[in-house]
Structure formats: C-alpha cells, structure tokens
Amino acid sequence: MHRFANPARFLRLARPLTPWLLVPGLVIAGAALAWGLFVAPADRLQGDSVRIVYIHVPAAWLGMAGWMAIAAASLAEIVWRHPLASVAARAAAVPGAFYTALCLLSGSLWGRPAWGSWWVWDGRLTSMLVLLFLYLGYLALADAAAREGGGASRVAAIFGLVGAVNIPIIHYSVLWWNSLHQPPSIGLGHSAMAPQFLVPLLAATLGFTLIFAALVLMRMRLLLADAQSEARLRRKAFGGSVPA
Amino acid sequence: MTEVLDPWPFVWAAYALGAGGTLALVGWCWQAMLRAERRRDRLREK
C-alpha cells in the first residue's frame, strides 16, 4: 500500500487506468441498461416497473460501497498516516453521494407504482436517507479540513469511520424491522432471482462499479493537481515576499 | 379501489436520472480533472 504513497508513482498508474476503467464501464453499463429496458422480461407481479431494478440496485450498492471506501481510507489515514488516504476518501465522497441520491430517487420512482407511495419512513429508506446526509456532512467537513490543513483532516477521517456504523444498519434494516422494502434477493452464493433478471442486474452492477472506480481516480487526480498547484503558488508567493 | 398506474413514465424517469446523471457526472469530473492538470502543468512551466 505504501508503494503508492508517492503521488508521482500513483499518477503514473492512475493516468492509464482511468480510461481503462471508464470506457468498459460505460459500454457494459450502457449494454446492461438497454438489456434491462428492451430485452429482459417484465415481472409476473411488478410488471414493467421491475426494470428500475437495473438502476436502483447498482446505485444502492455504490452508495454503500462509497462510504465503505471512505471508512477504509479514513482508517489508513488515522493508523498508517498514508498521504493519499485523505485524497482517496474525499474523491469517493462525491460519486458516493450521487449514487445514494440516485438510489433514493429511483426507489421513490419504483415505490409509487409498486407500493402506491413515493416515500415511507421505514428502516431501509430512512437509513439510506441518513447515509445521504452523512455524505453531505462529510463533504462539508473534508472541504473545510483541506482548506485548514494540519490535523483538521483527522476530524473528517474520524467522521468517516464513525459514519460506517450506518452501513450494517442499512443492510440489516429489512430483516430487523417490518418494512415494505423486500429482503435481500441476492447473497453470497445464492440468488432468489431468475437468470433473465439476474444476469443484466449483475452486468449493470459491474458496469456502474467500473464507472465509479474511474470517477474516484478522476477526482483523486483533480485533488492532487489542485494541491500541487496551490503548493507551487504558495512557494512562489513566499519566495517573492521574502526580502533579499 | 386499487389505483393502477402505467409504470413506463416511472421507468423512463429512473433511466433518465441514472444514465443522464452518470454521464453528466463523468463529463463534469473529466473536465474538472483536465482543467486542474493543465493549470498545474502551466504553473510548472513558468
């Protein structure tokens, strides 16, 4: 892990990796969405509204995976003081917040025809909304920490770690509490879904995950470039103001 | 009486948000990254 502590070494890897993740991600996600929209059958009970699953489930997975990435990077920052860890955590926050919001919106669009309601205050929906607020809080805190410098980023890292307590709550909410939301259909090594629904769903999840990884790399490159520009400007300003 | 809604407007709205939002986010991140890297490279050359 510390091999990539050097930003120059990280950038040598990130530059070619960005399009290698982005292009296959866009192709696979695009094909999976077309498959889900035009080829996959309608569900016996839910009819055509089941097609929203190909957007909703990848978005829910990435919303939670984004926070797990923030928590892992925060741990690396606090324990090992890895110099790129806070950059990685900040980079995962924007796409994570986007996919959490997409999960809530697509779930709402699914809920209206399926349940007759845009929103219900049950455990799954509420804990997912809490995750969106955690993302917004983290973004504000991490941006402020980046401006402050020094040890301020540790506050954001602690927030990232503590917020991870919400992830198992989201996952188990449908088992712990009575909910309109269905329990998990897919687990490790088993699936309650027929292959004609499962295959495009897994393809969409893979495609969006590759896009998410490319987005994180793009945001990391942006944050590193900004930090390098700021450091150079500061050195120039300091050099110019110091009397000979 | 149970209200039966046509699901297709909801399906199209979800796909428009998912696909359109992802493309917009990719475009925004790509542009912002290129702009920041060009700025850094210009500062290096000065």
Largest sheet of chain B: none
Stretches of chain A where pLDDT falls below 50 for ≥5 residues?
A: none
Order of helices and strands of chain A: HHHHHHEEH
Largest sheet of chain A: 2 strands, antiparallel
Oligomer: heterodimer
Task: Please bin the fraction of helical residues of chain A.
Answer: over 70%
Largest interface: A-B, 39 and 28 residues
Give a description of the structure.
- The complex is a heterodimer of chains A (244) and B (46).
- In chain A, helix 1 (7-39) runs antiparallel to helix 7, helix 2 (53-80) crosses helix 7 and helix 4 packs antiparallel against helix 5.
- Chain A has seven helices and two strands; from the N terminus they run ααααααββα.
- Helices cover 77% and strands 2% of the residues of chain A.
- The mean pLDDT of chain A is 90.
- In chain A, a hairpin with a 2-residue loop joins strand 1 and strand 2.
- Chain A is mainly α.
- Chain A has a single domain, classed as Four Helix Bundle (Hemerythrin (Met), subunit A) (Up-down Bundle).
- Chain A has a two-stranded antiparallel sheet.
- Chain B is mostly helical.
- Helices cover 83% and strands 0% of the residues of chain B.
- Chain B starts with 7 loop residues before the first helix and ends with a helix.
- Classes of the chains: A mainly alpha (244), B mainly alpha (46).
- At the A-B interface, helix 1, helix 2, helix 3 and helix 7 of A face helix 1 of B.
